[in-house]
């Protein structure tokens, strides 16, 4: 781990959970690097931003090469970047599926791979991927999104094993719906019906997510890897 | 360039031996077999060598190269088979990146 403040990269940091977590860790004194596809309108104080499309391998390599040059390493990756499309599969074009898989699976893989390369020399690292309760709920109307997140969970299990030799842990958190841009297009009734299927039937808060990411990136969590924790009791 | 990259590889191998990451049957030299049937590196040893070499090239030459790209993995004769072949492959990648 870094001698000074922990160095934490948050992908998808421009809004929603990513922005909230960038703010959370900047507030805790981490040196936070926020990554997003475009300029951030409302930057978090104390957070440094980089523009990067996580599905672009060259761009991701450049992002991590820059972090290595500017900060010398990386302690934590909050691998949050993701997109969703909520449509019945019969109304989902291939282009939409491809875009979801490229961002959520390929992007998740590339960020994890490059982070592990950067963490490896220090023999320390914490990677937290983002799944969703839609996976265990097998949520109809989100087939491509659910499939992409299920793939990301599989990557989490396998990469946890591959990176354990470097003392890098890889875990995932599966949030319930939270009032973010990602669900703003979903009708209230649909969200209410989804929440009702959770053992603890309420919308999630950013602090619920931060509670799990805090646990995963805690240096004391060195014996916790390859785990997926869902919020709401799923 | 070839000499410089070869030296980087040999230095990395020496460091890996010193730190106990790998055990070599033979002394470190530029024509030694590395990966494959008669090589001394296992897959984790190869991972360490390739990643450390990528970072060393970036630090020393300021060029960001991928030594584990599709081209390397699809070649019928692996570029990782010995020190010389890795050096040749790295030089090709550096020239391409420039």
Question: Can you walk through the features of this model?
Answer:
The complex is a heterodimer of chains A (234) and B (98). With 234 residues, chain A is α/β, with parallel strands linked by helices. Chain A has one domain (7-233): NAD(P)-binding Rossmann-like Domain (Rossmann fold, 3-Layer(aba) Sandwich). Chain A is built from seven helices and seven strands; from the N terminus they run βαββαβαβααβααβ. In chain A, strands 3-2-1-4-5-6-7 form a seven-stranded parallel β-sheet, with helices on both faces. In chain A, strand 1, helix 1 and strand 2 form a beta-alpha-beta unit. The mean pLDDT of chain A is 94. Chain B has 98 residues and is mainly α. Helix content of chain B is 57%, strand content 0%. Chain B has helices at residues 2-18, 43-61, 70-74, 83-97. In chain B, helix 1 crosses helix 2 and helix 1 packs across helix 4. Chain B is globular and about 35 Å long. Chains A and B meet through helix 2 of A and helix 2 of B.
């Amino acid at each position: 781990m870094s001698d000074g403040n922990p160095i934490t990269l948050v992908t998808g940091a421009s809004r929603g959970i990513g922005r909230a977590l960038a703010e959370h860790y900047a507030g805790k004194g981490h040196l936070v690097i926020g990554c997003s596809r475009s300029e951030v309108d409302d930057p978090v104080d104390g957070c440094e931003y980089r523009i990067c499309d996580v599905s672009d391998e060259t761009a991701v390599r450049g992002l991590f090469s820059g972090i290595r040059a500017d900060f010398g390493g990386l302690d934590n990756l909050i691998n949050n970047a993701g997109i969703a499309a909520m449509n019945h599969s019969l109304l989902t074009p291939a282009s939409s599926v491809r875009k979801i898989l490229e961002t959520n699976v390929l992007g998740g893989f590339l960020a994890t791979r490059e982070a592990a390369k950067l963490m490896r020399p220090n023999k320390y690292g914490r990677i937290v991927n983002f799944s969703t309760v839609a996976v265990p709920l097998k949520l109809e109307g989100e087939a491509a999104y659910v499939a992409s997140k299920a793939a990301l969970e599989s990557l989490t299990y396998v990469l946890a094993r591959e990176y354990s030799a470097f003392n890098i842990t890889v875990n995932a958190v599966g949030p319930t719906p939270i009032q973010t841009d990602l669900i703003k297009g979903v009708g209230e009734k649909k969200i209410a019906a989804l929440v009702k299927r959770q053992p603890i039937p309420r919308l999630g808060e950013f602090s619920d997510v931060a509670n799990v990411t805090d646990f995963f990136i805690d240096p004391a969590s060195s014996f916790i890897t390859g785990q997926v924790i869902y919020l709401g009791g799923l | 360039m070839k000499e410089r990259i070869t030296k980087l590889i040999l230095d990395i191998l020496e460091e890996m031996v010193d730190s106990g990451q790998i055990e070599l049957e033979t002394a470190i030299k530029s024509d030694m077999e590395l990966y494959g049937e008669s090589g001394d590196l296992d897959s984790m040893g190869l991972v360490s060598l390739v990643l450390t070499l990528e970072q060393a090239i970036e630090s020393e030459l300021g060029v960001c190269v991928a030594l584990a790209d599709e081209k390397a993995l699809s070649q019928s004769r692996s570029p990782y088979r010995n020190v010389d072949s890795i050096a040749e492959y790295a030089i090709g990648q550096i020239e391409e990146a420039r």
